[in-house]
Amino acid sequence: MIKQIIVGFVLLASTFTTVNGQTTQIIAHRGFWKTENNAQNSIMALQKAAKENFFGSELDIHITKDDVLVVYHDHDVNGILIETANYSAIKNTILKNGETLPTLKEYLIEGKKYPHLKLILEVKSHQDLNRENKAVSEIMKLVNELKLEQQVEYISFSQNICNEVKKQNPEALVSYLNGDLSPKEVKEKGWDGIDYNYKIFQKNPTWIKEANDLGLITNTWTVNQEEIMEEMINQKIQYISTDEPLVLKSKLNKM
């Protein structure tokens, strides 16, 4: 009972209600990495996001040629293309904070320590659709093994990956990143949300409301300027992914 109360308090601390009644929640983009001696997509960035009680922490996932899942943003590591390389070719890569390039298993094991923190898994597009399908399969296998189904959500620029997520687990939540489909089109495809760059929403100012009305998840990225944060909040966006989560937290506290 005490544990439930603590978890509930933590979730409350990461969720803010604007004057119009809409809740907006903070997603730390690639973790909370803008701290001293830290790095994007590092274990430390994950830990910092959990410590600050943000709603969620986003991470990027690739699969190597020999089927090892790694957490890294770019498609190549020091000029080595991840999806065509064996894990042994990149496993000793050192991040800016001195950590070794994490595997997804290492990352999720750490993330499981913070059940209040939603883990937003971006499955990166790959050159081969079969490799995308394999990545989804291996990710979901690992998520199931660690019993993290309720703590993770999926996002991707790849329509194939979004389809594969729903095919392999219809209950899993997946949002589309690319910004080229309307909320109605995303709903018709059976996906769960739109996670678009804020410029897409500025060009299509009715899309957030349309998506909310359709029961879709609405998220925007990567919002680092206060005026754009406020613009998105006023449109009743559900989530904001940002490299400046403390700035967003302060903004929400003032609204």
UniProtKB/TrEMBL annotation:
One of the entry's Gene Ontology molecular-function terms is:
phosphoric diester hydrolase activity
Q: Which PROSITE patterns match?
A: GP_PDE
Q: Which Pfam families match?
A: GDPD
Q: Which InterPro entries match?
A: GP_PDE_dom (IPR030395), PLC-like_Pdiesterase_TIM-brl (IPR017946)
Which biological processes are named by the entry's GO terms? lipid metabolic process
- Domain GP-PDE, by residue range, is 24-252
This chain belongs to which protein, by name? Answer: Glycerophosphodiester phosphodiesterase
**Organism from which the protein derives:** Faecalibacter macacae
From the broadest rank down, the organism's phylogenetic lineage runs: Bacteria, Pseudomonadati, Bacteroidota, Flavobacteriia, Flavobacteriales
